[in-house]
Design brief:
single chain; alpha/beta; six-stranded mixed beta sheet; four-stranded antiparallel beta sheet; globular
Length: about 270
Amino acid sequence: MSEIMHVQGLIFRHSSKKKWLKKPEVFELGPIELSVKRGETIAIIGENRSGKSLLAKMLVGAVAADEGVIHLSNERYNAARKKTTKSYNRSNDIRMIFQHSSEAMNPGIPAGMILDEPLRLNTKMTENERKAAIEDTLVKVGLLREHYYFYRHMLSDGQQQRIALARAVILQPKILVADEPFAALDPSIRSQSVNLILKLQEEMGLAFIFISHNLGIVRHIADKVIVMDNGQIVESGKTETIFRWPQHEMTKKLILAYQSLVPQQTLN
């Protein structure tokens, strides 16, 4: 697999306002070094407030870094505040899937218009070309062409998730980033969503970076696992290596908690 993204020295510093008789809280993430290969699935795990969601937002450009460089598809992006010469979050090669798909859909706009926006803003397609691309993408994510005209209230939770996925892939990205994309779904819909993403990965050669507390899903679909604690990557490696031979104390804690919930015979 060829490398499509490389992150160097990504740092974020945040200081909360000083409160009465209390020192200001300081949170620092990084420096982060990581690489992503074509078709690779990377899971980022860690406890709450470990910095994993912040890292995901920094990777897609939704949050600016204080320092760091991101190489994506042979282009170099300076991710630091006030120094960005090219707007990183406008890159079509990396897109984000929202956790709560219903909140990402305007209830007054049909699905077709929601999917039309990224094409209208980022391509030179004609209206007919955009409509054809939208319908093809709807079919690709397991919906019907007729769903172009459906509003949010007409769609089930699973269908809304598929619209969110369609919006993420419609610009033919190379990387999808998702923060807990399956957490809000019931088990049956969650399984369908996982299988759909695996199918799209194979068809489109997508890399998938996702944050999850569900280590069962992580073990099932991830090629590589990154463990974060207090803003740092404390361990990373192939999924089975991490699950069988965790080295860092935080990794051991997370794996032990997972194993306590799973019948022991399924771990071998």
